[in-house]
Fold:
Amino acid sequence: MSYYKSNPLIRIVILITIPILVMASSSFADAPDPYEASKACSDCHSEFFSGLKGTTHAVSDKNVSKGVYCVNCHDGWQGHIENPAKGNITNGSMLTPAKEAELCSACHLTTHQMSMVSTDPHFRADLSCSSCHTIHGNMNLMLVKDSSDNFCAECHSTTVAEFQRRSAHPLESGNVRCTDCHKLSNANDPAMAIGLNWTCQNCHSEKAGPFPFEHPVVYTHYTNGGGCMECHQPHGSPNDRLLNQPAEGLCVQCHSIPAAHRTKHDGWGTKLPCIECHTDIHGSFDNKKFLDPDLGTKLFPECYQSGCHIFN
Structure:
């Protein structure tokens, strides 16, 4: 104690600090309660206030622990309560995409949120959080505009038209949704995964293998493989099975027709579709030519038994 009394500099610091602490504590004590301040919003904005009920942004005493209040999103509320003018309070949907993402990131600091201001193509297209999400009066999961998740059609009209083609994924019937395949701002890059494109494999696991005899084009980790979309159009196609080209037109892009198919047995080998014999085109457990294991009894019962041809 004698040290503090004998040191005038410390005594000065203490004398200055005490009033500051007293003023700060008084300021915190006078600060309005954010829950009570948010309740005051309902005096004029009852429809917006009630529209939050039942959602994660509901303003209630049960949500106080989460810090969910009107005043968290609407900056300038203090002056707005005194002077309720339209221009003196923040409306998130009126902000620039970067500013709106910054506002939402106060609570939603996720991979999706961070990529919205960096790598996400939606951000580069000048879209914001409110382009896909609405807050008030919305009971949909993740607060998306459309519970079917097909609000993407507002911008991707060309893609929507592809689902009208003869062979298409069942978006129109509601069996699939855009977000089933397109995970927004997913940090994982499917192109870096070994094997069949993982997005497709979620539903088409039987095509994924692994197989003892692989069709290289199926696998993206092969230098000569482009994955599922090398042969298929993902949304819709005028050809069967979402193929890029009809029937043999697709196969001959990479494979020439063997000469023996044209010359032997009166050219019978050219009269059948490729997949009539090469049925296991994604990969085979039996042979490197992806032939139907039952080919010897189904189409050509004497081919293998005669000793002229071998199955593998």
